[in-house]
Amino acid sequence: QVHLVESGGGLVQAGGSLRLSCVASGITFRFNGMGWYRQAPEKQRELVATITSGGLTKYADSVKGRFTISRNNAKNTVYLQMNNLEPEDTAVYYCTVVDTDYWGQGTQVTVSS
């Protein structure tokens, strides 16, 4: 039973920061790639960042230089540090196990002007 629980979302002003967390269970965490995607109203779902089991990262062009994905295998947790947030980052952010249909319940991020 795979379970992913996101947390850390909230309301911030443009230029602010948030750190999202995702705690995973039901998988051998250290062997799985993990990622974050987001869904904003009237926009396509966007994969914003991934991290491999070995720690290699990729980012969508829209967040490069602002977001950092990381993982702590001892805690079965993946993080998304979001800096210099923009109103365009407003979305529900979901944690995912790469190459699976697993995702969490999402956490809302709202960035005001």
Strand content: over 45%
Helix content: under 10%
C-alpha-based Rg, rounded: 13 Å
> Tally of extended strands?
10
Report the average pLDDT across residues.
96
Number of helices: 0
pLDDT < 50 stretches: none
Strand order, main sheet: write it out. Answer: 2-10-9-4-5-6
What is the N-to-C succession of helices and strands? Answer: EEEEEEEEEE
- The geometry reads as globular
What is the assembly state of the chains in this entry?
single chain
Straight-line N-to-C gap: 40 Å
The major sheet is characterized as: 6 strands, mixed
Q: Summarize this, please?
A:
With 113 residues, the protein is mainly beta. It has strands at residues 3-7, 10-13, 18-25, 34-39, 46-51, 57-59, 67-72, 77-82, 91-97, 107-112. The mean pLDDT is 96.
Structural write-up:
The chain is mainly beta and 113 residues long. Helices cover 0% and strands 50% of the residues. The protein has no helices and ten strands. It has strands spanning 3-7, 10-13, 18-25, 34-39, 46-51, 57-59, 67-72, 77-82, 91-97, 107-112. A six-stranded mixed sheet has the order 2-10-9-4-5-6, with no helix packed on it. The N and C termini lie far apart (40 Å). The model has no long low-confidence stretch (mean pLDDT 96).
List keywords for this structure.
four-stranded antiparallel sheet; six-stranded mixed sheet; mainly beta; 10 strands; globular; 113 residues
How would the blueprint of this fold be written?
Blueprint lengths: L2 E5 L2 E4 L4 E8 L8 E6 L6 E6 L5 E3 L7 E6 L4 E6 L8 E7 L9 E6 L1
Parallel strand pairs: 2-10
Antiparallel strand pairs: 1-3, 3-8, 4-5, 4-9, 5-6, 7-8, 9-10
